[in-house]
Structure formats: C-alpha cells, structure tokens
Specification:
The complex is a heterodimer of chains A (115) and B (114). Chain A is mainly beta and 115 residues long. Helix content of chain A is 0%, strand content 50%. Chain A has no helices and eleven strands. Chain A is globular. The mean pLDDT of chain A is 91. By secondary structure, chain B is mainly β. Chain B is globular. The two termini of chain B are 23 Å apart. In chain B, the strands form two sheets. In chain B, strands 1, 3, 4, 8, 9 and 10 form a six-stranded mixed sheet that branches. The chains are: A mainly beta (115), B mainly beta (114).
Chain lengths: 115, 114
C-alpha cells in the first residue's frame, strides 16, 4: 500500500513568488494535515482538511492557504514568498480526523527554499 | 526532554543500552499522545500512541509512559540500536478546542554510539 506522497520533493522559489505543494493521502484516509518544519525546529501546524473542507488552521498568515480535492488529495499554496518560508513542509493523513484519535502518517515532505 | 529554542536536546547512548526520552506537555485537556521518529531527510514516522485513560503502553522494544498528574510523557527504547538514531518528537492532541490538531514538541535527538 502506498504511503502519503508529496510533490515536488524540492522546490526553489524567489521572494515574492507563489509556491504550490501537493499531497496524496493514504488510500481511504479523508483527513489531510499540513505542517511546517523550519530548520532545527519542531513541526508547526498549518492546516487541516477533512472531507474537502478546511477544519482548522494554525497561527499562520492568510498567504498560506490550501484546498482538498474530491479524491482527498490536497494542495498547499504559499503566496508572496518570504525568505523565512524556507522550510520542510510535511503532509500527514489519517482516517476521519484526529478527533477520532486515529494514527497520522506523514509523507517525506517538500523542501521549499526561498532565495 | 523537550526544550524551547533552536538547539535540540541530545541524548547519547551506547548500543544495547536502554534509552529514555522525556516530554512535558502543558495542556491538561490533551487526551491523546503520539511519539514520532524522524530520520534525517525523512518525514516523521509513527512509533506509538497512548490515550489519556492509560498510563502505560508497550510496543515492540518501545514503551510509552504517561503521567497526567505532572503532564509528563516518556518514551523508553529497549536495547537501543544504531538504527534508532533520529530525532524523536512527542505530540499531543488538544481535543476539540484546538480542532484536534496535533501539537508537537521541539524534539530530542537520540545518538546511538557503538
């Protein structure tokens, strides 16, 4: 069974540009979570999608946005990129949201570098 | 244990010894906890979880202990192996008030020496 897959693995953008990151959850999982992991730091919660709707977002500016498609895959969009947006962006999926206390499985991440 | 800041706490153990990684959490409403292992260049890997109605749970070579009184979580790894070298994160689920998002600690770096 395929795990959570993210694309691209690496992305280099210049300041002010937009970045789009993609995530395919494990088959059967309806919840997708996005996290930002800056170098040497823990995982900071960004967004949670479940059944196509945004259920919660972390303490990030509105230029971080996303969506979940009918097949439960998800996109994370970062507009007006800033240098400090450089980080590893991780996607995780689970069955029915962590409200159900289900295990969450992470992808390998997209390394975004803003120059 | 967990700490705030850019420098991860590091635990160095010899191969074959037992490892104990500690984590403190702050929210008494948290009722679900997970330990993750993250190797360099990879995403976090689920190790073991525990619900707040339990104080101990065992897996293969790993044990998680939960002390709700002092809001403390620990991960014990028996007979530590070189492949256990990684950064370990504890994560807490803060329940409905936080939209069920997992809140992660800063991580502890485990280094296993031969």
């Amino acid at each position: 069974e395929a795990g959570v897959t993210q694309s691209p693995t690496h992305l280099i953008k210049t300041r002010g540009q937009q970045a789009t990151l993609r995530c395919s959850p494990i088959s059967g999982h309806t919840s997708v979570y996005w996290y930002q992991q800056a170098l040497g730091l823990g995982l900071q919660f960004l967004l949670w999608y479940d059944e196509g709707e945004e259920r919660n977002r972390g303490n990030f500016p509105p230029r971080f946005s996303g969506r979940q498609f009918p097949n439960y895959s998800s996109e994370l969009n970062v507009n007006a990129l800033e240098l400090e947006d450089s980080a590893l962006y991780l996607c995780a999926s689970s069955l029915g949201g962590w409200g159900a206390r289900a295990e969450a499985f992470f992808g390998q991440g997209t390394r975004l570098t803003v120059v | 244990g967990e700490s705030v800041g850019l420098h991860l706490p590091t635990l160095s153990v010899q191969e074959g010894d037992n490892s104990i990684i500690n984590c403190a959490y702050s929210n008494s409403a948290s009722d679900y906890f997970i330990w993750y292992k993250q190797e360099s260049g990879k995403g976090p890997q689920f190790i073991i979880d525990i619900r707040s109605n339990m104080d101990k749970r065992q897996g293969q070579r790993v044990t998680v202990l939960l002390n709700k009184t002092v809001k403390h979580l620990s991960l014990q790894i028996a007979a530590t192996q070189p492949g256990d070298s990684a950064v370990y994160f504890c994560a807490e689920n803060r329940g409905s008030n936080s939209g069920y998002a997992l809140n992660f600690g800063k991580g502890t770096s485990l280094l296993v020496t031969p």
